[in-house]
Specification:
Helix content is 46%, strand content 21%.
């Protein structure tokens, strides 16, 4: 199972999409962004601009203390810190490039 995230614009057209394993849910919770990534609609997040600050904060925390977050690595190797941080950075870059894009997730 995985989480798919999509950013779409008015036309609508997808301007960004990527997925990541649900095994990273615990790490996302530790970073304070589980709801932002997995359940944005539940916390009122509708457009990419609303994710920029939380993603920046989470990435900074994760890079400042990798050991804290590596404790949440999936034992089976499907869901690792070393994959999640770059995934978050790509998501952040897309949010910065397309701040008006609507967020859609599929769980």
């Amino acid at each position: 199972m995985s989480l798919d995230v999509y950013l779409t614009r008015m036309q609508p057209c997808t301007v960004f999409d990527q997925n990541i394993t649900h095994n990273l849910g615990g790490m996302a919770r530790e970073a304070g962004i589980y709801e932002h990534c997995w359940r944005p609609e539940e916390i009122g997040i509708k457009v990419a601009a609303q994710l920029i600050g939380p993603l920046q904060t989470a990435i900074a925390a994760m890079e400042a203390d990798p050991e804290r977050f590596e404790k949440f690595n999936a034992p089976n190797g499907w869901g690792l810190y070393e994959h999640f941080v770059p995934w978050l950075k790509k998501y952040l870059a897309a949010c910065e490039e397309f701040p008006d894009a609507e967020i859609h997730v599929s769980r």
